[in-house]
Design a protein that fits this description.
Helix 6 packs parallel to helix 7. The chain is globular. It has 13 helices and 48 strands. The protein has five domains: 141 residues, Immunoglobulin-like, CATH 2.60.40; 74 residues, Peptidase S8 propeptide/proteinase inhibitor I9 (Alpha-Beta Plaits, 2-Layer Sandwich); 324 residues, 3-Layer(aba) Sandwich (Rossmann fold), CATH 3.40.50; 140 residues, 3-Layer(bba) Sandwich (Glucose Oxidase, domain 1), CATH 3.50.30.30; 129 residues, Immunoglobulin-like (Sandwich). The protein starts with 19 loop residues before the first strand and ends with a strand. It is 15% helix and 32% strand. It is of the alpha+beta class and 837 residues long.
Length: 837
Amino acid sequence: MSAASVILAAPTASAQDGPSVPRSAAENTDLWFVELQSPPTADGARMSTTRDEKDAFRREARRRGLKFTERRSFDTLWNGLSIKIAGSQLDTLSQMRGVKAIYPVGTVALPPRKKPAAPRLATAIAMTGADVAQNELGLTGAGVKVGVIDTGIDYDHPDLGGCFGPGCRVVGGYDFVGDAFTGGDATPVPDANPDDCDGHGTHVAGIVGAKGQVTGVAPDVTFRAYKVFGCEGETTDDVVLQSLERAYADRVNVVNMSIGFDFAWPTHPVAQGADRLVRRGVPVVASIGNNGTNGLYSAGAPGVGNQVIGVASFDNTHTNLPYFTITPDGTKIGYEPLQGTPPPPTSGSFPMARTGTPTTADDACDPLPAGSLTGKVALVRRGTCPFHTKARNAELAGATGVVIYNNRPGRFSGSAPGEPALTIPVVGVSDTEGALIDGRLAAGPVTMTWTADRAAFPNATGNQISDFSSYGPTPDLVLKPDLGAPGGFIRSTFPVEKGGYATLSGTSMSSPHVAGGVALLLQAKPGTPPGTVRTLLQNTADPKPQAGAAGALDNVHRQGGGMLDIPGAVLAKARIEPSKLSLGESQAGPAARTLTVRNQTNVARTYQLTHAPARATGPNTYQVTQHDAAAGVAFTSGGNPVTQVTVPPGGSATVTATITAPASLADRGLYGGYLTFTDTQDPGQVFRVPYTGFKGDYQSIPVLTPTANGFPWLARLTGTDFQKVPPASATFSMAGAQNIPYVLAHLDHPARRLRVDVFQADNGRNWGRAVDLQYLARDAAQDDFYYFPFNGETRRGNTPVTVPNGQYVLRLTVLKALGTGPADTETFTSPVFTIAR
């Protein structure tokens, strides 16, 4: 059951009825995964066993009167089915014999597009050292097959080989859905031609391994394209799971998944399938998600998978932009055209005029003097009012164009919709460029000249975590993401018919940098197991400082090990395991963890042991606050304090790190840092182990919070709205969705388990369990909610029960994440209601 992704309007009420909220706001799904009891064949089960279980499920479902449509069946990496079923039947479904668990089938939408631009990947490639790996180490990814699960690949693109099939760069693949597929209930029309009519997958493939005008990370890999999107819209995660099983059958060497199902547990079926693929020898690299503005615990599946390499996004150090020049010296000013406005001209000179200063908060938000900007390009500071308002005021004052500069560090992209539509070009520039132009205008006249050219411009947020990159950790406090790579302002291949090249941003763009890096590592070290691949990448990654934090390292649960360092991983003379530490709750005191240092050379090596703290967050999940709070770290060996560890040639040594949560950090905060091992003979060989922990009692985080709507509710469905039921006033006939009770609840934090039990009102008799769900995600926003129907059927053990007419209450019980017993639960008991069939 998916959490709502739409913020609710304020509830309404009449004199007779309780407040109401729209059913559509909850976005509950009618598409569900049904996991069956046996493991899949990848974990040793027989195919006959998994198929017999599915046949038994179908028979039992018919016997129980369930009405559903079967969508897909899975045997290899996950054992179960995906089905379409009404929400009112979920209680029966979840309690059927042979059903291990049910999970909502989620959706993922294609990200918005930027206008196609000239090709440039060089600066992003340099950020990870891929250029060094190619030019100095001679690595190209030759012989490595990369599976790309995405929108397909435009195999006609010359940078991606220009053809499809044996002997081509894109050697094969499959289209699971067809061009017209838009997600949800749309009918898939699969075929063997995974051509990309959207662009996202082509962009991703170019980052992995383009070779032409653009050079990707591993320019000699071959591809298999698994198309799970149509030309527009969404896809569903049962389609994605099916593509994982196909990649396994095709024996690819690496899989890239620039796809994420947000706010996920590692038990998500796609994460489970990806984990099993890794255990079968195939590294899986996945984007961690683009929910950085939605707070903590927002990482997505499959990136949260325990064996998957989950990848965060860093902004590119440079961005390739069109530019205009300004007098007197022809300084180039790079700009981003605002969407929804006329394209900027490619020639022509105009005087500039400013409407405010770099300290004006509401620049051009009010009408400007008539004629004050006639024939001029206006310089306007961002802030307070919409772009359309600023540009329209400048247009009415006679401006021929508008340059809007940022009111915070860096560049921005945006749009200026509104009525009437603007008739002059509007572009955005950085805060520093705006201040430069403003200073020159303060000193005298400035003329700007539009050009048809492009150039590389430094990005003020380069090498910093992208603001959209999701926070970890997982709901069970496992450290995610694992590491990061460039994902903001990345230029790569795009379908030829759409211009050939484009700029996109997202963790979708960072994941293929790492997948390409894995391909180079596998070329350099053939046969390296997936676990060792992740260890080497994490050990050698380079953590980056947080913007505006005076050099303090950004959150470990935001950047993982740090920026991918491909030459560092290839040339590593040691590795340290485990490669990350998930410390869990600090309630029980300091956490002691033993680390094994493995020497990969034929001479003894000594490592200096140090600790680098990172910034902490907390305690609020939705409004993330940053704190300087360093954990205490002590290294010991054999019970004795140590500052160094010596490892024999080709051997190993152990050291114990004892980590104490920061005393200065408030409870419910998340802290982290890096245990650093520096080779005393070769100081360039630095290895790190990231760690993160939770301060205090994790189960102290409230789950059933009321929100502005006062949830939980007992509600009925009236038309298209849920209406809160006043106490002791509701009667239900149990005939159809409009005549059954619902419990509405907001989950402020992930829930390990959620149950709804039915009790007789007068004597407390337990009539059984109506709802039993596991691993629920937290709500995306603070006003979102879930709904849980009761259709009159319950279950006691394996026995189905029809609850007779009478008066009852529903008791909602939530077991908190990592909770173990009644002390870790929250409950809500509904008002009394009547069943009268």
